Amino acid sequence: MADVTKRLFLRHLRGTPTTWVRLTVGGRVRREGVGLSFWYRPLHAVLSEVPVDDRELPLLFHARTGDFADITVQATVTYRVADPALAAGRLDFSVDPRTGRARSRPLDQVATLLAELAQQPALDLLARVPLAEALTTIAPVREAVSAALRDEPRLADVGVAVVSARVVAVRPEPELERALQTPTREAVQVQADRATYARRAQAVEQERSIAENELQNKIELARREQQLVEQHGANTRRRAELDAAAELATAHGKAEREKVANAAAAERARVLATAEAEKERALAAAKADTVRAVGAAEAEAEAAKLAAYAALPPEVLRALTVRELAGRLPQIGQLTVTPDMLSDLLGRLTGPAPAVDR
Fold it and tell me: What strands lie across the sheet with 3-7, from one edge to the other?
């Protein structure tokens, strides 16, 4: 739609690069073309606006195949207004000069014409082929529709040109489509089951290989454990033999050492005993000699003393005796002398009185 602005009693129209505009005043064409911009008076102006850009027309119609199966055809037609002046003369492309809004919908007429023209060759072609061929022969349908629209004189009369025609899909009814898909689905399912079974078989084979490997590992571990136990027993037995031999050697060495020590001790004891005996003998001999010498000396001293005493008078001998006795008496703190004691002592000292010759 053109952009129309108001300035007092005038209007200004500004077109677009894809819009063809015609200004008619008093039955005479004043301006026409694409992308125009001009001032006009709405009371006297007649405006026509024709879009010249490419437009997409989606089509969806039903058809019947040669084996009486209903199908749905989905297509798309691209067209444009190649001769806008001719189209403006055949179809109502007029717009309100005050607001710029279209007074009618001429493109709907073009769409209806294109849909009818595109359906007819497609229906004719699909009615001559069975369902299976119709579902797989999309290219012939597209070529038939394109040729029919390209050579249609009614489109040229209104200035419309078809750019391209495409058939998007040819599909049967949902129940029939599911029935047709069943063999393929079953075949795919069979392949999927076969792949599943193969995968399961491979998994079972792998599990068996893993189990065999685990069993072989257990057997190898058991064999190595047996070897380890046997080696441990042999090591223990060898260690016991070595310990016994070491203890025996130690016992022999200890016995030899004890024997040598006992012999050395016996020899030392014998030597010590001999030395002690020699010492005792020497000491005894020395003591005997000493005692003999002392006895001889004492005897000689006693003899000398007796010889000296023999020459002394009796009074001197008594005095010496008293002195000797005093030296042998214990220490006396206090002495009480009675006449009896004195007489008795004197009697002992002097001995029996000599008989007086009368």
Answer: 3-7, 10-14, 37-40
Query: Among candidates 59, 75, 62, which has minimal Cα distance to 169?
Result: 75
DSSP type of residue 120: H
Q: Residue 109 in contact with residue 91, Cβ under 8 Å? A: yes
Q: Which residues contact 33 (CB under 8 A, 6 or more apart)?
A: 20, 21
C-alpha distance from residue 243 to each of 157, 233, 251 (Å):
126, 15, 12
Are residues 147 and 124 in contact, defined by beta-carbon separation less than 8 angstroms? no
What is the sign of the dihedral through the CA atoms of 278, 279, 282 and 284? Answer: negative
d(CA 113, CA 162): 12
How many angstroms separate the CA atoms of 339 and 55, rounded?
Answer: 191
CA 350 vs. chain centroid, Å, equals: 133
Task: Please tell me the distance from the alpha carbon of residue 110 to that of residue 52, in angstroms, as a whole number.
Answer: 13
167 with 77: CB under 8 angstroms? no
The answer to whether the predicted template modeling score (pTM) of the entire model surpasses 0.70 is no
How many CA atoms lie less than 13 Å away from 138 in the CB half-sphere?
Answer: 14
Asked whether the CA dihedral 37, 43, 46, 51 is positive or negative, the reply is positive
Residue pair 311/339 in contact by the 8 Å Cβ criterion: no
> What φ, ψ does residue 338 adopt, rounded to 5°?
-105, 160
Number of Cβ within a 10 Å radius of residue 23: 19
Averaged over successive runs of 10 residues, the pLDDT of the chain (358 residues) comes to: 81 88 89 89 89 91 84 90 90 87 89 89 86 81 87 88 88 78 82 89 90 90 90 89 87 82 79 78 77 76 71 71 67 65 68 49
CB-neighbour burial class of residue 235 (10 A; exposed 0-12, middle 13-18, buried 19+): exposed
71 neighbors 167 (Cβ within 8 angstroms): no
Structure tokens at 212: 């065999």
